[in-house]
Amino acid sequence: MKKLLILLTLSQLFIFTANAQIEKGSILIGGKLNFNNSNSDQWFGDLPNTSGRESKSIEFNFHPQIGYTLGNNWTLGTMLIFKAGKTVVNQNSSTSSSSTSDRLTTNDHAFGGALFIRKYFPFGEKFSGFAEFNSGSVWQNHESNYERTDSEATISETKYNELQSNMLAGIAYFPKNWLAVELSSNLLSFTHSKRKNEDNIQKANSNKFDFGMSTSSINLGVSFFLNNK
């Protein structure tokens, strides 16, 4: 996986002499998909005095795109942003006289839209590196449900309005001139978030800046280029 991340980065650092693979006036229709699933399990102590924590999370991202090729392998377009995720954390503690357990379940859903611009760097007959910048707005809903053995469940909901900007690096394989299979990952991300409570009253603003690729941010994409012969 580390070799793949290095390859994605190097594809943006070298421009090879080759004929353009994407003709001016071509229409791009495609999208990117990202899926993450993680589990962790930790236990401490010896019977009867033990404590433990179990965490499971799953996240799905889908970004359909449509764009227009301006020439010189530049493509400008729009994209939609869909996100769904769920995390469940269980904690347990027991002694010779008592035991307690609690569970925190969170659900996240997001929808938004953005503009993007992409530059392709062809090399060889079938491959091309590319860099993409996108920026747009996302509306996110975060729900949490906290349950404990000795108390009633606590349910809360928080809404976020976010402005997101991302810089991606990727590599595309062209089995056909009109079809590209792509791998990409975020290099740089900036998020400005406005948080609201259940009464839709603004509570806080925050800014987040991320730099560097990770295996959890790798996207698989497919693009169709209409009119590209």
TrEMBL record:
Pfam families: OMP_b-brl_2. Residues 1-20 form the signal peptide. Residues 20-193 form the Outer membrane protein beta-barrel domain. This is Outer membrane protein beta-barrel domain-containing protein. It comes from Algoriphagus machipongonensis. InterPro entries: Beta-barrel_OMP_2, OMP/PagP_B-barrel. The keyword Signal applies. The keyword Transcription regulation does not apply. Keywords: Signal.
